[in-house]
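Hello again, I could really use a second opinion on something today. I've dropped the whole record in just underneath, so have a look.
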Amino acid sequence: MQLPTRDRSTSLTAALGRWSPWVVGSALSMLLFWVDFTHSTGGKLEDKAFWGRDFVNLWAGGHLLRAGRAEAIYDVAAYREYLAALFGPMGGHNYSYPPVTFPIAQLFSLLPYWLALILWLGSTGALFVWATRRWWPSGWSPVWLAVLTPAALMNIWAGHYGFLVGALFLLGWERLDARPWQAGLFFGLMLVKPHLAILVPLVLLIKDEWKALLSGALTVLALIAATSAAYGWDTWYHFLFGAGTVQAGLIDAGTSFYGYMSTSLATALLRLTDNPDLAFGAQMLLGIVAVAMVVVAARGKLPTADLAMLVATATFLVLPYAFNYDLTVVMIAAVRLWADSRATRVERALAITGFLSPQIGMLLAPLGIPATPLMLAALFAAQFNRALGNPAAARGAPAGATSMHST
């Protein structure tokens, strides 16, 4: 009797199809880590940065706060002077996060820098993996790969908030149908980087999720009141009109390195033209189209999981200011579509395109090619097409009818 044999060529093709995008998507990040490692002395990178990049601001800001100098944290000159006292001359750093992050900064500043950096990335990474557990395609690959996507690797390299904010976003949407009060709490906690929640209130309003809206609003008000009482009301004023103004100026990034990390269409076009009306007009048009498509999806009977993934990607088509390390949840959206057995070949190709956008977009940006926003727009279009073609949505199934493991 002849035993059935396994087609090794088919298995190899499947393996290459699944893992080659991960290899390509990690290549640039690995290069950045290698460059930092080989060009640093004691963690410092040529008087421009330090290992952990933006985590320097969190740690140094915590020290400044514990020194009782909350009034100086959004004073760019005073902050850079304090930073230089801790690390020596540095590049153009500033503390860009809202006062609600002050307790986090103070907590991590209690530890030596290297231990604090490891604990920051380890704890927020673990939280993100835990929050992703119900969103990751069932049986597709280990869920811990969520912290090794192209955007996740950029977040590790940059020492940023991508894991924390991503976890809050996922936990909020996961709980929306069954526990809307908890969902609102998690959405409210996204105040640590409020612009990344820009579309959440709109969608909740369209879906008549009043409990979640109220919970989120109360959470935001409580956080503002508590931090104002602890650090002074003027810290919020200086955040909005001090740090906010500085960050808005970064939209026109020119040929700076951080500008290549931007997801913004406006930033990409400002590298090609001196016409800000054209750049911001195109950004506005893209944002309007994305919002309109999200509204159509929210007014339908789309399962909450699919709607959440659409909102995640649309956010970066709307925002004129965001970076590739913020795309941690968009990577989950891309993986879900990529692994969806119902997806067409074109939809899967566009999912992989979006998955690679943090790396490929960054490589093509110096050539003047606005690849990142275009790749994200392609992913969003594929998500929209697949979501509205979802049989559950077409039948009018209630939101949440499709499992988080629907793909």
Notes: The first strand starts at residue 44 and ends at 45. Confidence is low (pLDDT under 50) at residues 1-6, 392-402. DSSP finds 19 helices and two strands in the chain. The radius of gyration is 22 Å.
